């Protein structure tokens, strides 16, 4: 049993933070499901941008859709949905076997909607309707404008992967939005079983502070923030509010660890995977990290529920001049800006490729 299978046995879901047409057509994703216990995946504009840049598997589809007069954004979503529908079908047996707990794929709304609550709700409903797959999450950022969109989207019955969460407070806001949506569905006599995950970004904390603190503090803050958030997650699941929802048939909004590839070349390449081993959570990891962990990862400890140690570590960073509350807000703003840049790069790449393919067709 390799390390990924051990994590799965522990009760943590392993999702791949990658999707390309080649992964699907080559059978690689199917192999990861069999050999590494991968039970879902996530996507983002950067992943698609890289896939379109580095290969020609999308060329025919881009050419054909351009001939049909599709706008660049509409063209992208059609490409993405073709891949994600195929991936969703691969994971569907897992989704069915786990009663909808696992076996999910994710598609992000346009990052240009980050400050547009109504636009986000409309896009989420439209994308999920187009996919026609019960195991497709729509990714919505947990920004100030995204929180009310999450509630409304859940109320509409659309599964949501809440992204760009960086702190316990971000997580609690997302969890409360989810619960409000479910409570409203129950009050309206609707099915309370609407899937959701809350994605906490981990390694970006350490990238942000490593050059501001001494070496002994490197690569410790992200894990401490994750531990603090995990404690809030477990407390919420034990709360009367959640128990009431659970008794009505609602599903827990599971906590997901994102940004878990090590960014520091001096740190262990499996640092965040090993530190964040915890039942009833998800770890979505880059392909390189998945393969590395399967090869030589080790699980020595399970993430503790008690946040005492985490608070000690965070207090040490406070004494070093790091304000975790302010940094969480900065990281969310920077993450939103980075996603927007990736989106604009992706749209530009599709437009350029469309032009090149059209010219070669006419030549």
Key terms for this structure?
11% strand; single chain; 363 residues; 8 strands; alpha/beta; 58% helix; 16 helices; eight-stranded parallel sheet
Topology, please?
Elements: H1 3-10, E1 13-16, H2 21-25, H3 28-36, E2 38-41, H4 45-54, H5 59-67, H6 72-97, E3 105-108, H7 117-131, E4 136-141, H8 146-155, E5 160-165, H9 168-187, E6 196-201, H10 203-209, H11 221-237, H12 240-247, E7 254-258, H13 271-275, E8 281-285, H14 287-296, H15 308-319, H16 324-362
Parallel strand pairs: 1-2, 1-8, 3-4, 4-5, 5-6, 6-7, 7-8
The Cα radius of gyration reads: 20 Å
Count of DSSP helices? 16
| Average pLDDT for all residues | 95
Q: Largest sheet, described in full?
A: 8 strands, parallel
Placed side by side, the strands forming the largest sheet appear as 2-1-8-7-6-5-4-3
Q: Span between N and C termini?
A: 55 Å
Tell the overall outline.
globular
Work out the helicity level.
55-70%
> Low-confidence stretches at least 5 residues in length (pLDDT < 50)?
none
The helix-strand sequence is HEHHEHHHEHEHEHEHHHEHEHHH
In percent, how much strand structure appears in the residues?
A: 5-15%
Structural classification: alpha/beta
Number of strands: 8
């Amino acid at each position: 049993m390799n390390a990924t299978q051990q994590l799965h046995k522990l009760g943590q879901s392993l999702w791949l933070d990658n999707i390309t047409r080649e992964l699907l057509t080559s059978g690689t994703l199917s192999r990861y499901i069999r050999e590494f216990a991968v039970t879902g995946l996530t996507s983002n504009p950067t992943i698609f941008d890289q896939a379109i840049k580095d290969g020609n598997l999308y060329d025919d589809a881009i050419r054909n859709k351009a001939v049909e007069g599709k706008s660049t954004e509409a063209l992208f979503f059609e490409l993405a949905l073709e891949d994600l529908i195929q991936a969703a079908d691969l994971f569907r047996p897992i989704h069915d076997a786990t009663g909808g707990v696992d076996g999910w794929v994710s598609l992000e709304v346009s990052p240009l909607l980050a400050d547009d609550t109504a636009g986000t709700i409309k896009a989420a409903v439209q994308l999920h309707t187009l996919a026609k797959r019960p195991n497709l999450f729509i990714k919505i950022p947990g920004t100030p404008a995204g929180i009310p969109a999450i509630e409304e989207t859940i109320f509409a019955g659309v599964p949501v992967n809440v992204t760009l969460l960086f702190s316990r407070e971000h997580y609690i806001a997302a969890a409360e939005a989810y619960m409000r949506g479910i409570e409203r569905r129950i009050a309206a006599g609707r099915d309370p079983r609407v899937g959701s995950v809350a994605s906490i970004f981990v390694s970006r904390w350490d990238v942000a502070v490593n050059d501001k603190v001494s070496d002994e503090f490197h690569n410790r803050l992200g894990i401490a923030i994750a531990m603090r958030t995990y404690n809030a997650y477990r407390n919420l699941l034990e709360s009367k509010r959640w128990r009431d929802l659970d008794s009505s048939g609602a599903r827990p909004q599971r906590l997901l660890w994102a940004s878990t590839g090590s960014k520091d070349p001096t740190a262990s390449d499996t640092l965040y995977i090993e530190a964040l081993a915890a039942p009833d959570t998800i770890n979505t990891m880059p392909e390189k990290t998945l393969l590395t962990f399967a090869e030589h990862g080790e699980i020595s400890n399970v993430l503790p529920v008690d946040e005492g140690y985490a608070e000690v570590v965070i207090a040490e960073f406070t004494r070093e001049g790091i304000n975790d509350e302010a940094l969480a807000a900065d990281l969310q703003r920077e993450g939103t800006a980075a996603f927007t840049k990736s989106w604009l790069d992706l749209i530009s790449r599709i437009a350029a490729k469309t032009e090149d393919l059209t010219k070669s067709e006419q030549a």
